[in-house]
Amino acid sequence: MTQKPILTGRGLVKHYGRVTALDRCDFDLYPGEVLAVIGDNGAGKSSLIKALSGAIQIDEGDIELEGQPVNFASPLDARDAGIETVYQTLALSPALSIVDNMFVGREIRKDNFMGRYLKMLDQKKMEELAREKLSDLGLMTIQNINQAVETLSGGQRQGVAVARAAAFGSKVIIMDEPTAALGVKESRRVLDLIRDVKAKGMPIVLISHNMPHVFEVADRIHVHRLGRRLCVIDPKEHTMNDAVAYMTGAKAPEGAEAA
Amino acid sequence: MTDTGSPPDGGQDYEESLAKSDRSVASFARSHTPIETLQHVLHGNPTLVPVIVLIVSVGIFGLIAGERFFSAFNLTLIIQQVSIIGMLAAAQSLVILTAGIDLSVAAIMVLMSVIAGKLSIEMGVPAPLALLVAFAGGTAAGLLNGFLVTKAKLPPFITTLGTWSIFYALNLWLSGAQSIRSSDLDEQAPFLKFFGNVIEIGGARITFGSILMVLVFVALWYALNKTAWGRHVYAVGDDKEAAELAGIRTDRTLLSVYGLAGLVCAIAAWASIGRVGSISPQAFYEGNLQSITAVVIGGISLFGGRGSILGALFGALIVGVFQSGLRLAGVDVLWQVFAIGWLIIIAVAIDQWIRKVSA
Ligand SMILES: Nc1ncnc2c1ncn2[C@@H]1O[C@H](COP(=O)(O)OP(=O)(O)OP(=O)(O)O)[C@@H](O)[C@H]1O
Ligand SMILES: [Mg+2]
């Protein structure tokens, strides 16, 4: 890689009480790539991406976006900077509708007197856009875009969260286990979507426990272990067995770009 | 569906058959029992229950008590009687939608009515200016609650239990536990009694205060349902953590809710002067709990994020209809209280049942 990374983390540390979730962790994401992050349960993957997306504040370390130091105080800051995240918990409001969830925090107002002075929302426009994004994802099995998210299946909810991120991300999209609850077909859609987004030149961070998926779409694989980056491997030069062995500590990484 | 190659590393290609798969995917057209259908309908329209209860109870009391109940005079009287608690319930709804509770609404209202009265009667401040001070004071009192809930991270119940006492004590201190008489108001600041004015049409007596209550509900309904702020209020009440991750400034939303609730209480304070005719520091001592009663009977979930603010209006009206109807039917006051108690319990039970729809 001769390019400069678009998003980097150096020496990230995060403690939860006595638990060290991130232990001087480094991170690099290059423009246009799909970077997979793999690791055992509790290795600190979610903590890492939460630090990158402003959902948690790190105790130590530096984060840079496009070479500029950033310090996101909230997920909104990261989002305004162009980083869109699908959290493992999805971050959907159960009682709100699909449309409301997709546009939460960036609602579209009517382009008239009502919108300008009485802040009236343009429900119709948001519905149209939401429908468009969801059908791109093949999620139009949802009959009613105004139905509450809590009435959707787990997979459908995940689809809504992924569609939201894909629709609004401008610089980086981070997905924490976006296919965990999805069926074979819906997973395929998400993988296709990842490729589509990549084709547009936008880099993606994909956290997943699904090795076939990781090896299929990733350009590089960040192996996370015990709160830090153990190594970064090239999926073309390593097997899934290698990756699992590194991740679980069964084998020390060799010939990999050590971290 | 573009199927790009098989998985690179071992394993069978279990996705091959996807290309031939049914595009329509799962449709959820499984049949519902009538009860399930009802549950879904209510889930989508949480205000339906209070509306039905209101209509049915008006009908039943109309049959029992006849003309005396079912007259334009009595029906408008009921609206007039619930107008102040109704406005407090509107303020209460805002807070309860965020999964909070505000035990101080009536205390804020009474304190602000005392402040407005004291300024204009004893200190000679023009009534409109005195009212502006009261509005600012109500907003500040609400913001204090909001600040304690968001920044000091205290539970809303405890916070407002504390400020209830604080505002009540301030109110007794400022007023010297003395009422301001109706005649003094008429002489020096009749503007404070503006909302006591009445429009008479036939037998109907519609007070300005009743109209104000309806306007307050319409305005808040608009803000909650037609603006981004309203969506955020629901999202915060639903799941605060998710709302934060989704990019809502949850603390700011909460502060605005408590501040607005305080302002609504101060507006209710103005209306209460017109309704009561005088300013009494001891008035509306049960208003805090009565406002919660109206909200709960109106189908707004105490767990936050669910229900329509219009439900609180219907809730307040239901309470008014029961009180009026039972009284006119010659039932002892204690049985009115008894009936309201059951209404609360049934309303919460129905809310619990509706919320199970997703499980
Ligand atoms: N809010 C929290 N409070 C306390 N400890 C936490 C919190 N969040 C995470 N941890 C701890 O930090 C460590 C890393 O958790 P994290 O969620 O980042 O793991 P993960 O790699 O995403 O795991 P998984 O694959 O199961 O999603 C764990 O030991 C976890 O218990
Ligand atoms: Mg995780």
What features would you describe in this structure?
The complex is a heterodimer of chains A (259) and B (359). Chain A is of the alpha/beta class. Helices cover 33% and strands 24% of the residues of chain A. Chain A is built from nine helices and eleven strands. In chain A, the strands form two sheets. Chain A has a seven-stranded mixed beta sheet with strand order 6-7-8-3-9-10-11, sandwiched between helices. In chain A, α6 packs parallel to α7. By secondary structure, chain B is mainly alpha-helical. In chain B, 67% of the residues lie in helices and 2% in strands. Chain B has a two-stranded antiparallel ribbon. In chain B, a hairpin with a 2-residue loop joins β1 and β2. The two termini of chain B are 32 Å apart. The interface between A and B is large, with 45 and 45 residues. The complex binds adenosine-5'-triphosphate (ATP) and magnesium ion. Chain A: Keywords: ATP-binding, Nucleotide-binding. Chain A: This is Fructose transport system ATP-binding protein. Chain A: InterPro entries: AAA+_ATPase (IPR003593), ABC_carbohydrate_import_ATPase (IPR050107), ABC_transporter-like_ATP-bd (IPR003439), P-loop_NTPase (IPR027417). Chain A: GO terms for molecular function: ATP binding. Chain B: Its main location: membrane.
Number of strands of chain A: 11
User: Any idea what the CATH superfamily of chain A is called?
Assistant: P-loop containing nucleotide triphosphate hydrolases
User: Strands of the largest sheet of chain B, in order across it?
Assistant: 1-2
Provide the succession of SSEs of chain B. Answer: HHHHHHHEEHHHHHHH
The CATH topology of chain B comes to ABC transporter involved in vitamin B12 uptake, BtuC
**Main sheet: strands, sense, barrel of chain A:** 7 strands, mixed
Ions and ligands: adenosine-5'-triphosphate, magnesium ion
What percentage of amino acids of chain B are in beta strands?
Answer: under 5%
Q: Please name the CATH topology of chain A.
A: Rossmann fold
Largest interface, with Cβ-Cβ < 8 Å?
A: A-B, 45 and 45 residues
Number of helices of chain A: 9
Shape, principal axes of CA atoms of chain A: globular
SSE-based structural type of chain B: mainly alpha
Q: Strand order of the main beta sheet of chain A, please?
A: 6-7-8-3-9-10-11
Beta-strand level of the residues of chain A, as a percent range?
Answer: 15-25%
Quaternary state of this entry equals heterodimer
Query: Would you tell me the structural class of the helices and strands of chain A?
Result: alpha/beta
CATH class of chain B: Mainly Alpha
In CATH, what is the class of chain A? Alpha Beta
CATH-derived architecture of chain A = 3-Layer(aba) Sandwich
Domain ABC transporter (chain A): 7-251
Keywords (chain A): ATP-binding, Nucleotide-binding
Organism (chain A): Rhodovulum iodosum
Pfam families (chain A): ABC_tran (PF00005)
